[in-house]
């Protein structure tokens, strides 16, 4: 028997720690959409000078009308009527407004892997003559078993450290992705808003085109009502200034009937 010989064996275990994060961001965007259409009538130009003066004077006290920017304004449902004494122009405006709100979205999945190797070692002894059954093969098997066990132990220790590293890497990656995702969500919201704004604007324009004719008629009825009042006042003032008697007025759905008696000096008119 001689001194035992040694055999040394190493075993390795790869330790892998994978991480995955599913991130998403949402953003909202809103805007108001307005459709405004106008029709213009040269209303004042169709009146005689005296009638126009009386009409414009009557507008200053007409119910529902107010002075604004040198003109007279009457508010209508979803619109307005404006008369400008400087030009005699009647402007009927149809206005519709809607609020548009959309939501943008961006999502991303982040993945990463942290890996290292754990190395264990084991030693076995044997005799060249195989004394007591200690052959090289036996020593190698024992050393391999010890190395494997050592590698497993080291791998467990390494796994804890890699989990911490993986967590740190995932946190860093998420922080870097957040700003990128928010920008993407904002861009998506802006793009969706532009599309929705155009769709709503087209809808408002179509509805407004249908309404502008009716509002124009409403506007003309409104000023014609004021004009009728102006004619009424003008006739009554004329009658009173010329000493008319039996003044009588009667309102009906068809208008206003005014009657009065006026003495006319035919001889004086002939002279």
Considering the chains and any ligands shown, give keywords for the structure.
single chain; alpha+beta; 3 helices; 7 strands; 45% helix
Gyration radius over CA:
48 Å
Structural class: alpha+beta
Largest sheet: 5 strands, antiparallel
Number of distinct helices: 3
Instruction: Find the count of extended strands (DSSP E, 2+ residues).
Output: 7
What sort of overall outline do the alpha carbons produce when their principal axes are compared? rod-shaped
Task: Describe it.
With about 270 residues, this protein is an alpha+beta fold. Helix content is about 45%, strand content about 40%. It contains 3 helices and 7 strands, in the order βαββββαββα. Strands 1-5-4-3-2 form a 5-stranded antiparallel beta sheet. Strands 6-7 form a two-stranded antiparallel sheet. β6 and β7 (about 255-260) form a beta hairpin. It is rod-shaped. The protein starts with a strand and ends with a helix. The mean pLDDT is about 85.
